[in-house]
Every structure is written in C-alpha cells, then in structure tokens.
User: Which sequence fits this backbone?
C-alpha cells in the first residue's frame, strides 16, 4: 500500500511592540534571515510618525525632509523597492516571509482580502502592488527576494493622519534631475472611512485569523522588541545616515532666486548624498559671473546647514548684504 506523508507548514506570527521604524526594520531583516524550509511567518508592527522610501529612491525628491525632522519624524529606507509611504500608529504594517518555493503572491493577498471581507469591507487588487476601494488606495505593497527567500510587506491605512501624509509626501519644488525611482501619487483613504470605529487592533486580529485559516499550522504568536534578538548591528545600519541618505542615486539640484539686486543660481551635484560640486551664477559675484566653488567636496553630507556653512566661508560676494540675502534665502528652502 502506498503511504503518502504530508508535512504541514510551520506557521508563526510575530508582533513587534516597538514603534521605531529602524528597530522594526532590523527585526524584519533578522526574521527573514532565519526563515527555514517549510516555514511561513507573518510579521506585524506599527511605526510612529515616519516616512519610509524604497531602496532606490531619492529622499529629497520624495518628501519634505526638513519638516519631517522638525516635527520629530524619522526617515527610513526599505530593503525592498517601491514607493514612499507615510506611517503613524494609525497604520498597520505586515510582512509575509517564506522560502522562495513557498512564495505565493495571490495566497498572501488573499489573507488580507479575506480579513477585510470578514469585516464587511470589499477591496480589490490594483496592479501588482496596491489594494483599493472604489479607486482609493489604502494599501501599498513591496517585495524583496534575496537568494532562496521571499518577503512581501505592505501597509494598511486604518486611522492614519492623512493631513501629515499630504504635508510630508510633497515632491520638492526645487529642480532635481537624477535616476532615482519616483513614487506614483495616488488618492488614498483610511479603512475606518468604510467601517466606522475600525481600529488597528481589530484589523490585526482579523489578519491573524485569516492567516491561520488560509495557511493552517499552529501559528504560534510571539511579541518582540529590540531586546529579543541580537540586532544591534542591523539597528545601526537602518538608522545610519549612510543607509538612509548615502544610497541615494547621483542627482543634480538647481536653486534659483531673483533678488532685488539680481538673479542668483546654485547648481549642486550630489553623489551618495554628499555634495560633490557647487557652481554659482550671478552678475553680482566678485570676478566671473559663473564660478565653481573651491571647497573640499565629496565629504560633507548634503544638508541645508552644510550649504549655509559653505556660503558663509566663501569670498565671492561684493558685500556682506548680498551674502546675508543669499543665506536667508537658503534657510527658507525645503532641502
């Protein structure tokens, strides 16, 4: 008699109690590295007042960095591609982690869609990576497929501050040229606009139940934070300037303003998030009207403060009042 042995999936649910995006990114990467054959893991977490961009994006093109930092927000860069999203504690993040041979995008999306259906919310997939209701996006998804492993992660807008989302995710008004992937702008909505009173906790419980029904297994649940795993190196990586800004593809930015005394233009060449070259143009300069600043380029991060420091130290202005006008103008720029 032929005997067929069936090996059930090993399912697990992990929930982070941290709301720090850099910590949660570190936990996510750690968990992905530990995935074993036959295992499917659902990771759930929330972030506080954060902007997360895709691996190959330019933060200066995607969000108002200065405003985010002034309001104690955190900028993060994902390991996956895709676009930039705003997250707060009214948003639920999820990740499906599997060996590549168990990666099944339809099945993973079914977990989410079934959980929503159980809450009397009818939603649809839109394209490869979005979930929508009547054309309004409430979930963006991205994918990371390292050798032998797979991660499908995404967001669920439930009670997110859409005013902050709109304020932070405004493309820069400056002229920027470069190869970074640019986000597609979408009309968004919160799920509690469809189901009044819906909370993140209710949605989270719905996802857990749907995950168990669709994947089976014991789906043992554990709660974790930065102290559960040896992730200090990963936390350092995701919070570092080099990861968040230094991976930005090379780009150029042009700043231009018409002062009462004449026009002034700054051309910036940025490599790995650092100022590589500055050229200025104005009829009010001492010497030629177009000058390349002779500064130690390629070392200093591209920030508003660095730019102000540069212009305080160069001797190219005919008088201090012109320099003061330029410095005041730079201080108003959203860079």
Assistant:
């Amino acid at each position: 008699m032929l005997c067929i042995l069936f090996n059930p999936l090993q399912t697990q649910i992990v929930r982070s109690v941290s709301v720090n995006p850099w910590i949660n990114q570190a936990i996510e990467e750690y968990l992905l590295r530990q995935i074993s054959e036959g295992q499917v893991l659902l990771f759930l977490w929330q972030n506080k007042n954060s902007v997360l961009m895709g691996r190959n994006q330019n933060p200066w093109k995607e969000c108002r960095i200065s405003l985010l930092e002034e309001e104690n927000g955190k900028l993060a860069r994902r390991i996956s591609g895709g676009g930039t999203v705003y997250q707060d504690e009214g948003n639920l993040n999820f990740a499906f982690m599997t060996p590549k041979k168990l990666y099944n995008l339809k099945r993973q999306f079914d977990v989410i869609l079934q959980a929503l259906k159980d809450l009397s919310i009818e939603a649809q997939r839109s394209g490869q990576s979005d979930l929508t209701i009547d054309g309004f996006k409430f979930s963006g998804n991205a994918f990371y497929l390292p050798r032998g492993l797979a991660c499908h992660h995404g967001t669920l807008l439930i009670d997110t501050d859409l005013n902050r989302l709109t304020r932070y995710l405004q493309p820069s008004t400056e002229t920027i040229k470069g190869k970074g992937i640019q986000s597609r702008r979408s009309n968004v909505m919160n799920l509690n606009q469809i189901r009044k009173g819906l909370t993140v906790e209710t949605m989270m419980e719905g996802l857990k139940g749907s995950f168990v029904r669709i994947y089976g297994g014991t789906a043992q649940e554990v709660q974790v934070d930065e102290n559960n795993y040896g992730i200090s190196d990963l936390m350092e990586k995701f919070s570092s300037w080099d990861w968040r800004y230094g991976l930005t593809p090379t780009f150029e930015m042009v700043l231009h303003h018409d002062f009462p005394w004449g026009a002034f233009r700054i051309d910036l060449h940025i490599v790995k998030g650092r100022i590589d070259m500055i050229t200025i143009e104005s009829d009010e300069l001492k010497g030629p009207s177009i000058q390349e600043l002779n500064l130690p380029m390629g070392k200093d991060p591209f920030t508003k403060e660095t730019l102000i420091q540069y212009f305080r130290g160069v001797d190219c202005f005919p008088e201090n009042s012109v320099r003061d006008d330029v410095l005041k103008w730079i201080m108003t720029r959203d860079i």
